[in-house]
Write a structure and sequence with these properties.
- By secondary structure, the protein is an alpha+beta fold.
- The protein folds into two domains: about 45 residues, no CATH class; about 120 residues, Carboxypeptidase-like, regulatory domain (Immunoglobulin-like), CATH 2.60.40.
- The protein contains three helices and twelve strands.
- The strands form three sheets. It has a six-stranded antiparallel β-sheet, with no helix packed on it. Strands 2, 3, 6 and 12 form a four-stranded mixed β-sheet that branches.
- The termini are far apart.
Length: about 190
């Protein structure tokens, strides 16, 4: 120890002691252990993802988890003061990327909303605001007879109809009244 280091109150420095376990072979084993601690869990997770997506349709499962809730909804469509039977109601959510719902109108104009999820019609519609179209199909009109529903209700671009699907199915009862198109009223 030098006199200089004792004057400033520094502690004496001893040469490093080496353990027999600090050999280069032991150090490389410790490095390999660290690699396995990091690589092995990552490999297991990646393998689980590949198996999940490949064999168990993991993409559909994740999509189902991220999709907003669907809630039952029903109602009735009136036109000219009477139930509009035999038509079809379609809805399109304002939220992009979600499929719309549909409902066939019975002879009393009543409908239940159903949504096509991967080819299966599931009861209900996605929560949120929806634009609505109402059309009649399968009707044979005599020559010169106007359609039963105004054209503005046939397209999502022109329809003024909207519904709000709430989280509570008790709030999802709709009465939709179609208004006569002023241009189609005979004078």
């Amino acid at each position: 120890m030098s006199e200089d280091s004792q004057e400033h109150g520094a502690l004496p420095v001893e040469p490093e002691e080496r353990c027999a376990s600090d050999s280069p072979a032991t150090t490389s084993i410790l490095s390999l252990r660290r690699v396995f601690v990091i690589v092995l869990p990552i490999t297991v997770v990646m393998l689980a993802i590949v198996v999940g997506f490949g064999f168990f349709d993991g993409a559909k499962w994740i999509n189902d988890l991220l999709r907003p809730p669907m809630v039952a909804g029903s109602g009735q469509v009136l036109f000219r003061g009477a139930p509009l039977g035999g038509g079809e109601l379609r809805s399109k959510p304002e939220s992009k990327g979600l499929p719309g719902a549909m409902g066939f109108l019975d002879d009393q104009g009543r409908f239940d909303l159903k949504t096509d999820i991967d080819g299966d019609y599931v009861d209900g519609a996605f929560v949120g605001e929806h634009k609505v179209t109402v059309t009649l199909y399968g009707q044979a009109f005599a020559a010169g007879t106007p359609p039963l529903t105004p054209e503005k209700y046939a397209s999502f671009d022109t329809t003024p109809l909207t519904i709000v699907v709430s989280k509570s199915s008790a709030d999802n009862m709709y009465l939709i009244t179609l208004q006569e198109d002023p241009d189609s009223i005979a004078e």
